[in-house]
Amino acid sequence: MSRVVILMYHIVDEPRSAREQRFCCLPRRFEAQMRFLRRSRITIMGLDEWIACRNGTTGPPERGVIVSFDDGFQDFYGNAFPVLQRYSIPAVLFVVSDLVGKSNEWMHRRGFPRREMLSWPQLRELKDGGITIGCHTRTHPRLPEIADEPSRLADEIGGARHVLQDALGTEVDYFAYPYGLFDDRVRSVVSEAGFKAACSVRAGFNQPDSDILSLRRLDVFGNDALWQFRQKIKFGRNAASRLFPLRYYGRRAATRFWRDG
């Protein structure tokens, strides 16, 4: 059965506080992860490629990985992009349109360190370099909390798409829900805005019949060792432990024994 995992990164840099450590993948760890993907037998795909597989244009892979980044932090340009180029790995970058060239205001208000966001010239260079630019709203709100304000909700979603498309001169077809939060009303507006697919933060595998507007992603934590990274991809779980494979295969063996015995 075909199954694809979408990896979710935020910051590829040294953490500036204990609070943001979870979101910061060290550059050396990021490179080790990308090197592992390139040397593995896993099919590395862009989101466009997987959508084509779903639509029957090409055959789906047995095991696939898509790399994604949320928010559009400045460190992507200097720390992540060169590694992705070195290993020929496509990626999708979900950008907060109204904060391009500014800072992470939605995080700074909650006590996180201030970080600069990518500029428009950098985004254009990334787009020309093969990075797919996706949409992450205008200001990074919790969308279900504004779902009773239809015009604001539509502007955060569809308005952000128009801003990105006008500034970058390209179609912006993919969306990521801020904080992974959405409900039926939010999902409906995303669909009406014309997005081909949308990503949540629910963990798990994506299969050809998965809901295209609530795709699952795996969170790559800042302190993930390579064995944890590999285990996440293999089992489609955010949590990783040394004992989990033993328990998993033990349960499978027991099930087969009682079924076939």
CATH architecture verdict: Alpha-Beta Barrel
Major sheet: 6 strands, parallel
Please give the domain count: 1
* Classification by helices and strands: alpha/beta
Number of E strands: 10
- Assigned CATH class: Alpha Beta
- Termini distance? 26 Å
Instruction: Report the principal-axis shape.
Output: globular
What is the percent of helical residues?
Answer: 25-40%
Gyration radius, rounded: 19 Å
Mean pLDDT: 93
Classified in CATH, the superfamily is Glycoside hydrolase/deacetylase
At CATH level 3, the topology is: TIM Barrel
Order of helices and strands: EEEHEHEHEHHEHEHEEHH
Task: Kindly list the characteristics that best describe this protein.
single chain, 261 residues, alpha/beta, TIM Barrel, six-stranded parallel β-sheet, two-stranded parallel sheet, 9 helices, 15% strand, globular
